[in-house]
Amino acid sequence: MNPKILFAGGGTAGHVEPALAVAHWLRNEKPNWDYVFVGTKKGLENQLVPAAGFNLLHISKVVLPRQLTPEIFILPIKIFIATWQAIKLCKKVDLVIGFGGYACPPIYIAAAILRKPIFIHEANAVPGWANRLGAPFASQIFIAFSRAGQKLGRWRNAKLSGMPIRAEIIASANLSGEESKTKKRLQIEKWKLDQNKPTILVFGGSQGSRHINEAILQSLSAFTEKGVQVVHSVGRNNPLPTSTENYLPLPYIEDMSSAYHAADLVIARSGALTCAELAAVGKFAILIPLPIGNGEQAVNASDLQAAGAAEVVDDNKFNSDWLSSNWDEIWRKARNYQAAPAAQFSASETIGSEIIRAIDGSK
Questions:
Q1: For 244, which of 39, 219, 225, 281 is 20 to 30 Å away at the CA?
Q2: Quick one: what percent of the chain has pLDDT higher than 70?
């Protein structure tokens, strides 16, 4: 029988896209192997995974309460049900690789019970609770940020792989100057915007950000006065504002490679995937870390800020007044920013090669 690899991780693009990048690389190298994804019924994986041509299975969603609420008392029951579902899925796989998110904890527990090899990729500079749970059972751990390995236990032996990102983004980062200009021109034409105006690309993660959305909408008149046009991914579940000559709102952007190319400045959250993509394409950004969780987004952004590739602003300070007051300085930095050469190694290849080595070595 062909080896079967199970990819776990979902909820947001930050968990799903790196998993898909590794799966695509593996499928190119080992087309006869079987690849299956597991997620929950409401995560973004339900759009992205089938669209990429992979099968997606579901288990129950288990959310760890951030505060002491009555939910904490039924958490063991939810974990038991999801783990039982995960055991059924893991029985016939040869290796499990998790990327964080709601689907991972039950899969890690099930794989450990069944003694299946477990690989983990941690995208953030501060590991999330799902991957912290799975780390003691993992055969190998890969990290996108070196500081994620500055932990006790299994994290000290983690391998710095970087972030697996889509092949088309890596390819676009290596285009010649003329090829890059052509790609930008074609995307501006597709958006039906003005080729002669600077373009700001705004997005708040795969779910969008209401706070960022409000700040941008309140700044539109100022952007128009400055001769700037805005492409704004508001999030699938958020209301779509009215478009204007200088403002294009979209629910979601599928072709991020072309969108990055067309942008002269990016305004975004500092999720790990976004930071890795910005580093790859060499775009200057205003980054607004999400103020919840483990504080990982603030840490994610710090490397870009240190390299002069980003201006980081606290969520509670980012608004139309901040944009207006700081715009001239931000725009000066964006115009003068010279990106460092793109990394020549592929995180997908690093992780995929280790998976192949583990499977071949077990035969």
A1: 281
A2: 94
